[in-house]
Design goal:
about 60 residues, mainly alpha, structural constituent of chromatin, Hc1, DNA binding
Length: about 60
């Protein structure tokens, strides 16, 4: 569950920047949102590979 908590924490950390960008048009917040979304993509790919490896270990 630690990996799930990492995903939640990352998403929650972006909430303020999403609001600033979409509600107030703050361009710097948009840059932070883009970076955070890239970090989320990387984290998701890492978790996906981890799950696949565990699954493959169980099939042996």
């Amino acid at each position: 569950m630690a990996r799930f908590d990492e995903v939640k924490d990352l998403i929650l950390s972006l909430e303020g920047d999403f609001d600033k960008f979409y509600s107030k048009g703050n361009q710097a917040a948009g840059t932070r949102v883009r970076k955070g979304m890239q970090d989320l993509k990387t984290l998701a790919q890492d978790i996906r590979a981890e799950v696949q490896n565990k699954k493959n270990e169980g099939e042996k």
